[in-house]
Design goal:
The complex is a heterodimer. By secondary structure, chain A is of the alpha/beta class. Chain A is 27% helix and 33% strand. In chain A, the strands form three sheets. Chain A has a nine-stranded mixed β-sheet with strand order 11-10-9-12-8-1-6-7-13, sandwiched between helices. Chain A has a two-stranded antiparallel ribbon with strand order 2-5. A two-stranded antiparallel sheet of chain A has the order 3-4. In chain A, helix 2 packs across helix 5 (188-194) and helix 3 (94-108) crosses helix 4 (127-135). In chain B, helix 5 (210-220) links the parallel strand 12 (196-200) and strand 13. In chain B, 62% of the residues are buried. The chains are: A alpha/beta, B alpha/beta. The interface between A and B is large, with 82 and 90 residues. Strand 11 (162-169) of chain A pairs antiparallel with strand 11 (176-183) of chain B, so a sheet runs across the interface.
């Protein structure tokens, strides 16, 4: 079984971003970039499936500008077998990304695609579901447990009311939630070895995909700021303020 | 213009998140139709028909839709979506599951988690964990949108008298099966709808200590939440998580106990009307957004709060 893992290069989760003065977007100049945290969990899950003997090959794919080859190398250092980079603009919308991934899934004949449930920059939470729809595959989104057996994936999902378990006929798409696993760190020898692993580069044209979108961003603004209030000295003062000043209890 | 709103329900009752989505639909302007897809869910359709401002309810009542499996629900919605200018659903884990699928089947973009409507084709949505707000415009023929419930008031759940029309469309893709679910049963108000929320973080030290928060919650009729750190540490289940990737809440009063205030937690609660933080570390970032901060050991302050309320 081949597993395709899609990963996204995003700003590091610890960086507090600021909106550009001209409201055209957020300022990422010199910001530390990283593999999207949910995508790290996706890589880890794929590698674990391979270590259990359930997969033969793990392919890491990233779509975006040339720099996202760094994130593909990270995936290779963690244990992915080879990488594919689709060179495109960094801000592609989810539907074109899903269309590109769909072509790669067909080309590679992957039986399982694992993605993060959302990226921490655009916060869309769409690509996995869109890919599943385009490929006519079932989906197990927001996964916290995955078992593969008898041509099916048994996926436990984190839902608003608790957890839900579904059984999916392979090939299938899985998107990861935070508690699916704890990603490992890459060792130095593996980082060195990753440099020699195969990394192919393609373009959307090679895959025959039009990457335009019906959605455009008109402006990006900072949220209304919330200023710090006051410190209270005691529980009594707190209760008094909530009753008489804020009037919320 | 005609707007299709997908009802969120458990086959028994219409969930309030649907009412927030109806309000978003009203802001876009147009005829509002609610789709209730489920099994033995006629009562839900009746409740949807009573929602103020709704002109018609479509009822797809079939065992296939009992568990809202996205493979089948999205095929159904995509088939009936032609003729609508917008398809809306609340941005819950259910809506987020099937709506991108609907958009892909229709070949259009999906707009996630809108918090405001500027016009029928222009919406505001948070990005970067709410550290920026993007105004986006869609030129697609059908706009597929999920609605963040905290951005819109609930539409009145009475006063309407829409007709209910049964749909015979059955879309069984037969590629996914529901196996089981483990839902948390609680007497307390639901986290996303509660007017008061008290949440615990890593500072709670373990799950047993959440009983301290329960005592306060009982006095205030509050829901109980948690930070990602508390959930990751296994103190409490995932459905209690408030944050960027958990639940988004905006109650009248939010009490953060032993929560440092990581960016991703703030993303889930910073629109609360009044925020209280109780933390022994006076440098904790949570104090930068709190209206009332109490620098204290939670193991003394929280029991005292429960006693004195």
């Amino acid at each position: 079984m081949k597993i395709l893992v899609a990963i996204k290069r995003v700003v590091d989760a610890n960086v507090k971003v600021r909106v550009k003065a001209d409201n055209s977007g957020v300022d990422l100049t010199n910001a530390k970039m990283a593999v999207n945290p949910f995508c790290e969990i996706a890589i880890e899950e794929a590698i674990r499936l391979k270590e259990k003997g359930l997969a033969d090959e793990v392919i890491a794919v990233s779509i975006g500008e040339k720099a996202c080859q760094e994130q593909i190398r990270t995936a290779l250092a963690l244990g992915a077998d080879r990488g594919i980079h689709v060179e495109a603009a960094a801000d592609l919308q989810p539907l074109p990304v899903a269309r590109l991934l769909h072509k790669l899934v067909e080309k590679e004949g992957a039986s399982l695609v694992i993605l993060g449930k959302q990226s921490i920059d655009s916060d869309n939470n769409q690509v996995g579901q869109m890919l599943a729809a385009l490929a006519g595959m079932p989906q197990g989104t927001f996964a916290c447990k995955v078992d593969i057996a008898d041509g099916r994936a048994l996926v436990t999902r984190e839902v608003d009311g608790g957890e839900q378990t579904v059984s999916l006929k392979l090939p299938a798409v899985i998107t990861t939630d935070l508690r699916l696993n704890e990603p490992r760190y890459a060792s130095l020898p593996n980082i060195m070895k990753a440099k020699k692993k195969q990394l192919d580069t393609l373009t959307p044209a090679d895959l025959g995909v039009d990457v335009s979108s019906g959605l455009k961003t008109l402006s990006v603004e900072p949220p209304p700021s919330r200023s710090a209030g006051i410190k209270v000295a005691s529980v009594d003062e707190l209760i008094s303020k909530l009753k008489t000043e804020a009037k919320v209890i | 213009m005609s707007i299709l709103v997908i009802a969120e329900h458990d086959n028994v009752a219409l969930r309030p998140a649907t009412l927030n989505a109806v309000s978003a639909a009203k802001a876009m302007g147009g005829d509002i139709v609610i789709l209730v897809a489920g099994a033995n869910c006629a009562a839900v359709a009746s409740a949807a028909a009573a929602v103020s401002g709704v002109s018609k309810v479509l009822l797809a009542d079939n065992a296939v839709y009992a568990n809202q499996l996205p493979e089948d629900i999205s095929a159904l919605i995509a088939e009936i979506a032609a003729g609508y200018s917008h398809v809306l659903a609340p941005a819950t884990t259910t809506g987020k599951n099937f709506m991108p699928r609907v958009a892909a089947l229709l070949g259009v973009a999906q707009i996630s988690d809108i918090i405001a409507v500027k016009s029928a084709d222009t919406f505001v949505r948070p990005i970067y964990a709410g550290n920026a707000l993007a105004t986006v415009q869609s030129s697609d023929a059908i706009k597929v949108v999920t609605v963040r419930t905290t951005g819109f008031e609930e539409a009145a759940n009475e006063g309407g008298s829409a007709v209910v029309e049964a749909l015979a469309v059955v879309k069984n893709q037969n590629i996914a099966e529901f196996v089981s679910q483990q839902l948390t049963v609680s007497e307390r108000p639901e986290l996303t709808g509660a007017s008061i929320v008290i949440s615990g973080g890593r500072g709670m030290q373990n799950g047993d200590n959440f009983v301290l928060l329960e005592k306060v919650a009982d006095k205030l009729g509050a829901a109980i939440g948690a930070s990602r750190a508390a959930v990751d540490a296994g103190f409490v289940p995932n459905d209690m998580q408030v944050g960027q990737t958990g639940k988004i809440v905006a109650p009248d009063l939010y009490i953060a106990v032993g929560i440092s205030g990581a960016i991703q937690h703030l993303a889930g609660m910073k629109d609360s009307k009044v925020i209280v933080a109780i933390n022994k570390d006076e440098e904790a970032p949570i104090f930068q957004v709190a209206d009332y901060g109490l620098v204290a050991d939670l193991f003394q302050a929280v029991p005292e709060l429960a006693d004195k309320l």
